[in-house]
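Re: the pair you flagged

First of the two:
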Amino acid sequence: MTAFVLVSGGHTGGWIWREVAAGLREAHAVAHPATLTGLGERRHLGGPGTDMDTHVEDLVQLIDHADEPEVVLVGHCYGIYPVLGAAGRRPDRVARIVYVDAPLPRDGLSMLDQVREQMPEGPVRDRMLSQPARAKDGRRVPAPTLEEWREWGNLAGVSEDALARLARLAAPQPAGTLTQPVRFPDVVDALPMTGVFCTVGGTMDIAGVEALVATGNPLFGQLAEPRWGFFELPTGHWPMLSAPDDLVKVLLRAAAGEGRRVSPRSRT
């Protein structure tokens, strides 16, 4: 029986996977929606020391307490950072890592380090880099308001009811989780991987991967390895809210090793 550990993006928690978790269970899979320290129903447990290491430890403990011998780690957006950190500590328990509309983290960089290095200049980059300065008490970045979700959230396909739930349940993000680098050993680079791109309003798709591989940059060369597969979902950045049934199907296919491969012959 396939077991999934579901890790969501910033300001959210395990609650956001409600429909996806139900769909996976209906398909006779196991679903473990994760709520990281300081978020969701665990927001009251965050403190000055809550950082990336805290969120990695959260997932390590979840993996250690799971009955299943292996799990598929699913990281959405920010969630891919602690996913990779936990995979580095328990690689023997990880069957596959799934990136859901998520960046490609690098060992030794924080989320904001990567934004600073890789995101083009513009209002989105400026807003993300300003998050630590907006943190309450220097440690909690306020959750977006309903209006801010509408402006910045890439909510294509999300219903008004789901948006209202997102705004109501979103929690302040511990600032240390954005500024502390994630660390993971080389063994993570040998694990099976899947990339899921949300293509409505998104900045990357399978054609974009092919173009990155074609540059010959070693950083992207791994994406042409057979252990990588890719899917596209025609929806916005929050597919667990906008297209949960489609996301369930993709996760099950990813766990089975399906997905489009990118050939190294794409290089020019």
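Second of the two:
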Amino acid sequence: MTKLLILFTLFWFGTNFAQYTYTAEELKITPLVEGTLLLPETSEKPPLVIIIGGSGPTDRNGNQNMMKNNSLKFLAEALYKKGIASFRYDKRIVKIMKMGAMDEKKIKFDDFIEDAIAVTEHFKKDNRFGKLYIIGHSQGSLVGMIAAQNRADGFISIAGAGQEIDDVIVDQLAKQAPGLVDNARESFDDLRVNGVAQNYSPGLASIFRPDIQPFIYSWMQYNPQIELAKLNTPVLIVNGDKDLQVQVSEAEALYKAKPQATYKVIPKMNHVLKEINGNDLENSKSYNQYNLPISEELINVITQFIESN
């Protein structure tokens, strides 16, 4: 464990700037899970949030190759300023890819759950913190709500799906490529029943190629509504109304499964937590704008939830 004092300089709107000093620890939880702990200096034990990233080879900052928006980094830093500690970590596939040992056939959705549980159990033993919360973004929402069961003091879903992943993909295809919907539904049904799909259209190869089918199959075994209902701790469900990937209807489905949850749709927030005032082009560009701040309302909603629970 290496304790680092890191100085970040944040520039806002050209000449205006503010400097903040963050106390950070770089931690290795398992051989495949490494991340950054931001620990505010307070007289009391601060609450801790564990931040779980979304789909793909997402690192601790919310970035991937050719896509740098720093969404999760900005979220952690914003919470730090509110007196809330955070741990965010690289998904295991980031480490595996760096090792040159990537084999898609061997990756299962359960691997991400296993990692999230390992992180949660690690910090449950750390007496520097008060209550422990899990924040799951996108795919990380389902991972997080499973890891949080009987382990965390609260759970926060940001842009999380409210349906099983095959239903989510079919709904997306209905909007983007309706001609592929029937074949996709049949292929998912084959995969669910037989563990393999063979008669899929070439247009669906990115979803059903043989190497990735074991991962999709393992992901399909979990229904977010069922998993969320298992939680007996406070829950916050958040979605942005500018999210092009996860519709507000997905958050509504989660809220229906957990009606006692706190539910918030944030105006102008997109999938990578940025505030979008323009059209879909501006929305898409924000995925690769590393210095564009995240939604201030999101930060306030999360902070209020933690402070009140």
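The longest strand covers residues 16-30.

-B.
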